[in-house]
User: Fold this.
Amino acid sequence: MGLVLVGFTLGRKLPNTVPTRLAQYLFWVGVPISIIAFLRQADLSGQIWIAPAIAHLAILLGALLAWLGIKVQTYYNKTSPEKSTQGSLLLAAMIGNTGYLGFPVTLAMVGKEYFAWALFYDLLGSFPGAYALGVALGARFGDNGQQSQITQVAKAILINPAIWSFGVGLLLRQVAIPDAVAFTLDKLAWTTVALSLVLMGMRLAKLNTSVNLPQVGISLMIKMLIVPVILGWTLPFWGVTGSAAKVIILQMAMPPAFASLVIAETFNLDRNLAVSTLAVGVMLLLVTLPMWLWLF
Assistant:
């Protein structure tokens, strides 16, 4: 809360170039270093490959429930929302902020020993869900025919440094590095965690829009309450219990990701709805986070 508020305050006072530069540093340098550092210390034993499978289930369940919500709303209102609004609602219900927000929350609440579960959930689950299924939905509900936009997104996936650092981190687990290097990596990684939360606050400070409460309520209820409850109670059947289950729950319960806003802007979806779900979702997390920790 403190770091997000610091970022929010700075975001109101500093020019727009500052959060942009910080985001670029985290994307190209900070996050890859933190992935390598935390992955070296993470426990990869157990059924860790279940994490991305559950992430894909959460994404698909969120999309299904949002689609049903649209159909129910259409039935009672006798009119369906605009296609752009439907697209933004689907994206907000499926894609969670499992990276910039999920990683710090997981590290703080569970510890770095189980960081790999959060990492696998994000990089092999949320990330392809956002930039594969999310982009497909954006093209379907937004301006069709933006092939160049789709090509650019596909290119961005291939050059994403987080994917490459994931592979490097796995390789470096087999290599002994000097204590000084390991210490430096660890401090840089935790600095990245703090800066990620500051950046979150800066981005929230730049969001200006009116809140469409009914639409926002539907998407956030699905994303942050219904999906985690349904899939959370099934985790023991997957053999996921204890701290590993807590990590999965926290990742599933994250508010909508900034990727949903990026896709909404790329394909001309309902930007107001995308922005509103981001802002309200982060504030709602302050209420839902202790609830999940208590329930699970």
User: Anything to note?
Assistant: The mean pLDDT is 88. The two ends are 22 Å apart (CA to CA). Residues 2-295 form a domain with the Na+/H+ antiporter like fold fold (CATH 1.20.1530.20).
